[in-house]
Amino acid sequence: MTVKKTDARPFVIKVPEERLMTDLETFREKALELGAAAAEIIRASRIVVDERVRLKCTVPRCLRAGETPNCPPYAPELDVVRKAFAKFSWGILLKTHLEPMENYTPKSGREQNLLFHKKSGEIVYELERLAYKQGYHLAMGLGGGSCKDYLCRGLICQFLDSGRCRFPLRARPAMEAMGIDVVDLISKVGWEAYPLLDDPGQIPCAISVGLVLVY
Ligand code: SF4
């Protein structure tokens, strides 16, 4: 049998350090090209999974808790999350800026707020796909917010209703649903986030954060 010549990369189990760093930089630059305001290569060991973050989905109860399979109480158990994350070494952390600020406050229109995490979610999806295509078969992307907002625009969850998600490859638990302390993580790379207040003039910029664990 003749083996066809191709540019496709096979899956990689052990990646030489130099190639890994080159690939991570390629993914970081891709995040910027796709519209991220900033992106950083981070060690997975910097991620903190904290029960308090997960509890904040239900205390006080987020509107989306129980409304999708990606939100608590259906999101993966934190023990599983911790064990899985401990097996990753590197990832890409990215953020998008939400502008203009007036569009993203509690007083803004419902439709606009549903889209708060849309852009970062799209970048996460594209980066995860790229990493997979480059041979990183366990690449895993997580965004912010609920898929019921940024994908299904508030419509009833079709997965819980009929077992068929409208966006099976794009829908995923939010970082916070996985217990990741996002505020802690972004502070480690020098980024800031502010509480969303009624007066947008007090906030320099709102951000949405995404994470793609690569290897
Ligand atoms: S149908 Fe919509 S809300 Fe339900 S899991 Fe899929 S993307 Fe999320």
What pattern of helices and strands is seen along the backbone?
Answer: HEHHEHHEHHHE
Shape estimate: globular
Q: What's the gyration radius in Å? A: 18 Å
Q: What's the arrangement of strands in the largest beta sheet?
A: 1-2-4-3
Mean pLDDT: 93
Ions and ligands? iron/sulfur cluster
Number of strands: 4
Structural key phrases:
215 residues; binds iron/sulfur cluster; 8 helices; alpha+beta; 32% helix; single chain
Structure report:
- Helix 1 runs antiparallel to helix 5 (118-133).
- It contains eight helices and four strands; from the N terminus they run H-E-H-H-E-H-H-E-H-H-H-E.
- It has one domain.
- It has a four-stranded antiparallel β-sheet, with helices on one face.
- It starts with 16 loop residues before the first helix and ends with a strand.
- The protein has 215 residues and is of the alpha+beta class.
- The chain binds iron/sulfur cluster.
Task: Provide a quick synopsis of the model.
Helix content is 32%, strand content 12%. By secondary structure, it is an alpha+beta fold. It has one domain (18-213).
